[in-house]
Structure formats: C-alpha cells, structure tokens
Amino acid sequence: TTCWDGARNYEARNLLRFTKLGQQAFSCHSNCREPGIGAIVKIVKEAYPDHTQFDQEDPSYDSTSKKENPKRSMVDVQFVRMTKRFIRLSQIKAHHPAHKAHGGPLKNVMLFAKQCLSILPLTQEEFDFVLGLEEEKPG
User: Fold this and answer.
1) Alpha carbon of 78 to those of 24, 49, 54, 64: distances in Å?
2) 2-135 maps to which CATH number?
3) Measured between alpha carbons, how far is residue 114 from residues 9, 11, 17, 108, 136 in Å?
4) SS3 category, 89
C-alpha cells in the first residue's frame, strides 16, 4: 500500500477526489519509451490532502496552498496484481478508431482526449476491455 501523491494538475486532482474505496485502477508506466499498463491497484483510502504540497523540500511544494484549504489531494492504493503482460498504450489506441466509428467499449474513452493526465476515469466496460487485452498477443 502506498499513497498516490504529486498530482499537480487541477483536473487530475478533481478526478482523484471522485475515486471510491475499493475501486480498481490501472498502474501505468508513462515516463518510459513505450507507455503502458503493468499492474492493477485498488483504492484503499479515498482522497485526502496531499502532504507533499506543504513540504518545502518536496518538488510538489506549493507555497500558495493552505492546510485549511489544500489545493492538492491524494489517495492510497494497494497492489492487487501485475497484468499478465505489459499492455502498451499504443495497443489500446489501435482499437479506438474502430470503436469510435462502429461502436465499442472505447468509443468515448477519455484517454485519447486527456492523455497527459495522471488519472482518467474508465467505465466498467472500458476497464474490462482494456484488461482483456492482457490475453492478446502484442501487435
């Protein structure tokens, strides 16, 4: 179990605040050559003030954030399992055009409109489809 801290984007912060206890999420690797999903985690503590915003030694320090009205939030996540294989973002993106044109679970997924955010909501149908990709051979 660890905290998911350092979300600096306000939209990402707002989305973190809507996560619910027990909800599952993908743990994505984005600061690498080929971004993708490597594990599943679950929310074990709902949103609370991100302590890094008050720590002057932390890169996420924000001198304008006040303890009585914090700007940033974080959640605690717990490891559930590794995905059966690394699911590349490019593999997920490859399904989007067909789903958008002909209907499918990824037709409205926010991932392709808001991909720079560290958190994005998925419907259960979207989550299940992406998780099903771990069974496919990478293309």
Assistant:
1) 9, 18, 24, 30
2) 3.10.590.10
3) 12, 10, 17, 12, 25
4) helix
- Nearest of 79, 93, 80, 77 to residue 35 by alpha carbon: 93
Token pair for 34: 């080929």
Sheet holding 2-4: strands in order across? 2-4, 73-88, 36-49, 24-29
pTM for this entry? 0.85
pLDDT per residue as tens digits for the range 1-10: 999 887 788 8
The answer to whether 82 touches 131, Cβ cutoff 8 Å, is no
Q: How far is CA 9 from CA 1, 33, 71, 113, in A?
A: 23, 23, 10, 15
Q: What does the pLDDT look like over 49-75, one tens digit per residue?
A: 999 999 999 988 999 999 999 999 999
Which DSSP string do the residues of 4-52 spell out, in sequence order? E----SHHHHHHHHT--TT-EEEEEE-SSSS-EEEEEEEEEEEEEE-GG
